[in-house]
Amino acid sequence: MKFSIGDKVILKRTGEEGVVLAYINKQMLDVEVHGINFPVYEDEIDHPYLKWFTEKKPKKAASMPEQLPVEKAAHKMPRLARGIYLSFVPVFKIEDMEDVVDHLKIYLINELPYAILFKYDVNLLQHPVFNLQGKLHEFGNIYLHNMPYGDMNDQPRFNWEFTDTGNANHQTESGILKIKPAKLFAHIGDILTKGDASFSYLLVDDFKIKPKPEKQEKFELPKKPDYITTGSAKKIEAPVSVIDLHIEQLIPDAKGLSNAEIIKIQLDTFSKYLHLAIVHRQERLAVIHGLGKGKLKDEVHRILKRTPEVRIFTNEWHGSYGFGATEVYFKY
Question: Which CATH number fits domain 8-53: 1.10.890, 2.50.20, 2.30.30, 1.25.40?
Answer without folding.
Answer: 2.30.30
